[in-house]
Amino acid sequence: MSSIKKLVGQTAIYGLPTIVGRLLNYFLVPLYTSRFAKEDYGVLSELYAMVTFFIILLPLGMETAFFKFLNEKEDTDEVFRNSFLTVFGFSTLFFLIVLFGSQSIANWIGYPDHSEFVILMAGIVSIDAITALPMAKLRADSKAKQFSIIHFTAIIVNIGLNLIIVQFLFDKEHPMQAILLILLANVLASSVKIIGTYREFLAIKWKFNVALAKQMLRYSLPLVVAGFAGMINETLDRVMMKPLLMSAGETRKYALGQVGIYSAVYKLAMIVTIFLQAYRYAAEPFFFSHAKKENPNVLYIKIMNYFIAAVCIVFMGVSMNIDIFKHFIRSEEYWVGLGVVPILLIANVFLGIYINQSIWYKLSGQTRFGAYIAIGGATITVAINLIFIPIYGYWASAWATLIVYALQMVASYLLGQKYYPINYNLRKFGLYFGVALFFFLITFFIDLDPDEMTMRKFFFHNSLILLYVAMVWRLEKK
Questions:
Q1: What is the dihedral of CA 264, 268, 272, 278, to 10 degrees?
Q2: Number of domains in the chain
Q3: Range of the domain at 127
Q4: How many alpha carbons lie under 13 Å from residue 326 in its C-beta half-sphere?
């Protein structure tokens, strides 16, 4: 139990800046949606959807490789040095290619008058990739305070600059200028991590072990493929939506408006994602450090039980109080998309379980299975979106997300039982998820006050949530 308490503590320490930062970003959503027309917000959402792919690609999976090899090699400095230099070289080359080809790329993605968007996007992902390993080293060295301060400072800089831009510099006649400034603010915020980890940069010796780098890349590249394919499941729908709707005869303005609506309501479903990101910062080094201890599977099973209960509580909290959460989106023109939020929340519950299960192929070194699962999911995601977005719009994207994450969860479990068995408590999973879904359906079909959240409705919905928490406490208190 002390190990689980340690994991919870580390999740809080490493995840606090992320949680606070994401919550602050939530307060930017009402600001954006009150200033940007939905089609202009669609532009910003589309650009950031593109950015996320390269945030996965450029670090080359070296963070996870770093934690694994750190526990296997005697020369830990060499492990860090090789990880960093590999990512640094690749990211620098990527930025130079984008810099010289920015106009061609801008033409290709549909923003021929804004090649500067492409350069700034490349700057954001390159800086984030280069600082990923120094930040990972702080986690490995248990420098949680320094890690949190740097991460939190970068978030505050980004949020603060966004507030200034949107509140004081925004011109409704020229919304693209605001988008340019928002991207620039992100570059400056990312640069905070370089300043915060300068000691790690200065301590690096420019000595490269090619054999070790190849060994680490053989381990990490399947994770890159898995991460990249996973990002297809998470964000490609926002990249595909505009061209698919336009090909179906809709105007560019309408298509971007649909991207804006879907992106705004997707933010409400990302509360589960905030929890997941905070958890992952602590979980990965934690699982690796406990892999060689006696009976680690007993610990993994307990953690999975608590994890499922936690994400189900988040799902219920948001979906059963959507009449409150919707006010984070200030303009009612976005509210038409609120119906997909419970679908996306359930999808993220499945994603969280899949992420928790995925430790089996990382611990066993069979990372290729992560790539296989992710590629399969990405293929299904692309197929569903290609076929159904022109007909059903963002509803197709939401259902595609849920279907794919459910299939990935099942596939990971079945493969894990074959290659690295962990006897998870499926009955408890069925109970926790089934009761959460049942309580949500009760509130969905017994809609006391369909137009607003009254005290009667608030009390009824949240009494069910408290009843659920009491059930979990009763079952897990030992």
A1: 70
A2: 1
A3: 2-476
A4: 21
